[in-house]
Amino acid sequence: MSVRALRYYEEQRLLPSDRSPGGQRHYPEQAVDRVRMIQQLYGAGLSSGTILYLLPCLSAGRTSPPMLDRLVTERDRIDRQINDLKGARDRLDGLITEATDVWPEWEVRRPA
Amino acid sequence: MSVRALRYYEEQRLLPSDRSPGGQRHYPEQAVDRVRMIQQLYGAGLSSGTILYLLPCLSAGRTSPPMLDRLVTERDRIDRQINDLKGARDRLDGLITEATDVWPEWEVRRPA
DNA sequence: CTTTCCTCTGACGTCAACGTCAGGTTTCAG
DNA sequence: CTGAAACCTGACGTTGACGTCAGAGGAAAG
Q1: Is the four-CA dihedral A101, A102, A106, A111 of positive or negative sign?
Q2: In chain B, N or C: fewer CB atoms in 10 Å?
Q3: Count of CB contacts below 8 A, A vs B?
Q4: Which domain holds residue A12?
Q5: Above pLDDT 70, what percent of chain B?
Q6: Model confidence over A89-109: pLDDT tens digits?
Q7: Could you report the per-residue pLDDT of B90-102, keeping only the tens digit for each?
Q8: At B89, which CATH number?
Q9: Among residues A70, A98, A83, which one has the least CA distance to residue B72?
């Protein structure tokens, strides 16, 4: 994590911070999980706005019907993205298998 | 597909085009599959440079050992990405289930 | 009190895959 | 032959999640 990222999350109102009298940020324990969640959702393609909108149900289980719609929309989008990725992976995998079959295993260096 | 995207692919040397005497682009049949492949790989997070590098093995099966390394690297990255996405999806799915279970449809009552 | 490190705010920079606009040229149906 | 639709090149604009820099100030050790 970079300091810049934390500031950015705060700017987006995703991560509140306590301040010392001098103005320095101080985070409660809970912030760690919050940050991990934010990273995960950014990584899954949700926008700042969407995460902000979903925060009440993400962190407090307060889910209204419109929020439920949004949750379902995002989940379905992620599912489609997973399927697209599987397609790409299978394409590469096919090439790898194909290229590997040509050379005997003991001649090829494979990471992992 | 936008025209702009095709021009961009050509700029990146991913998609050659025949030109009419007047300079207009004409694509062979094969180009359709090529474009679909490019889109799929962009969608999976590969850069123009990586796709360009892998083109010989992607479209002609000519895979050198360094290319094989790159293929494996990208495949593994995609696998990690799929797992990350599954994590995010499961989180949302949990919330959806939770929110749905709380108010079974047949129990919902509307306060006056 | 000083030193040294860490933090603050504010603002501009980055990168990639296109979108979009302007002004000119090619194509082809009628 | 002609006119409008489609295409051309070149160039700048967009977007989001930060990176990075400058200058100023707080935080604890000695």
Answers
A1: negative
A2: C
A3: 107
A4: 1-60
A5: 90
A6: 999 999 999 998 776 655 555
A7: 999 999 999 987 6
A8: 1.10.1660.10
A9: A98
